[in-house]
Structure formats: structure tokens, C-alpha cells
Amino acid sequence: MTTSRPTGPSGSPLVGRGDADRYAAVTRSLLGYGLIAGPLYVVSALVQGLVRDGFDLARHDVSLLANGPGGWVQITTFVVCGLMTVAAGVGVVRSLRTLRTRRPWSGWLVVGYGVGLVGAGVFVADPMNGFPPGAPTGTATAITVGGLGHLVSAGLGFLCLIVACFAVPAARPWFGRVVGVVFLVAFAGVASGSAAPVVVIGFWVAVVLAWAWLAVTCLDLYRRTPLLTPAG
Question: Transmembrane stretches, by residue range (predicted)?
């Protein structure tokens, strides 16, 4: 006699001792990357900014760290944190579907942001504003294929992030809207090519807020995504 295997809230087979929903367990694991990616990115960028010769946290965009000796560290940071964000975005989609909430497609915007970060690592920004040492003191004298690819990847990724801040249904929608507006203004500032401290520092603040929004959103969905199947 064949017995059917019990399933959890999402309809997927139960694993372990029969009380854990496999689909939900995977979803929660993916959401966990949204809590890790931000701190890793920020710590890596700040440490590099403090130890790299000629880099000024108040004048230079973090993307410039991918240039010169040691640039591989920032390239790796972009790619690894981007892949983590992609995983978190997939977790957001799965969680929103499980919870049957509005706009589950909005999680794909987080995925888009992650893809943009990966692209920003694959394509290296052109040297400018005196970094690395010997680079033009102003904007780049010539835009290379890598520099253009970096601008396009970062721009599309940031656009996905801004829209996601408004579209992803989270526990604190006001926070998402604030972060979306702040990031849009800050990105417009750095996109202008300005190296003024208020612009550069403003963008650093916006980046930290964006990672905080992703962490808060993933933590909220992590807590709301059911893992245990009620007894009986």
C-alpha cells in the first residue's frame, strides 16, 4: 500500500522529522543573504577606502576602488554581494507568493539590482578624480567599453533598486519610500560627475540606507514565511 507524503503550507514535501516545509526552508535561506550582503559590502568598501593609497572617502566613489593594485577586492565585493542580492531577491519572490501578498513580481526588481552589482564588478569604472594615483583630476578623459558597461550596469541596477523600494510590500513601506527618494537624489548627484564632498558622502549614506532597507525587508519576510506545519 502506497501512502502519500505529507506536505507543508506551500504544497511541497515535508523534510527532516516531517515538520519542516522544504519550500519555506529554502525561501528563508535565500532571504538570509539579504541580511549578509549589505554589511559585507559596506565593511569591505570602508576598509578599502581607509587603506588604499590616494583614496578619499569624501571625494571618491566606491566604484573607483576596482582600479589599480588591489582592485580585485572591490571587483570581488561587487560580484559576491551582487550574487547574494540575487539570491535574496529570489527569496523575496518566493516569500511573497507563499504569503499570497500583493506584487510578488516586485522581488524580481531586487534580483535586477543584484545583477547590476555583478555587472558593475565585471565592468570596471574608468579612473577619474585623481584615483588611482595618476588618473585625471576631473572626469575620465575617455570612456572605455568597461567604463560604459559599468555605468549601464550600475544605472539599471540602481533603477531596479529605486523602484523596488516603492513596489515591494514590506512591514515598513514608509521606510522604503524614504530610501527610494534619497537614493534617487543621491544617484543623480554622483551621475552628474561631481566630486563635491556633499555629493559623494550623500551617496555613501544612500548606499547604507539601501542595504538597510534590503535587510529590514528580508528579515520581515523571513519572520512571516511559515516554516513549521501546524500539528494535526
Answer: 30-51, 71-93, 105-125, 145-167, 174-195, 201-222
Query: What is the per-residue pLDDT for 20?
Result: 53
CA distance readout (Å), 17 to 6, 13, 20, 225, 229: 11, 11, 7, 19, 11
- For residue 148, the enclosing domain spans 20-224
Task: Assign 15 a pLDDT band (cuts: 50, 70, 90).
Answer: very low
Residues sharing a CB contact under 8 Å with residue 143, sequence separation 6 or more, in sequence order: 126, 151
Computed over every residue of the chain, the mean pLDDT equals: 88
Domain contains 182:
yes
Rounded Cα distance between 12 and 153, Å, is 36
Residue (of 232, 115, 199) closest to 164 by Cα position: 115
Residue 104 lies in a domain: yes
What domain count does the chain have? 1
Instruction: Summarize pLDDT for 33-85 with one digit per residue, the tens.
Output: 999 999 999 999 999 999 999 999 999 999 999 999 999 999 999 999 999 99
Set of cell numbers at residue 42: 559596506
Which three cell numbers, joined as nine digits, stand for 66? 576596482
Q: What angle do CA 141, 205, 191 make, to 5 degrees?
A: 25
Examine residue 230 and state whether it is found in any structural domain, yes or no.
no
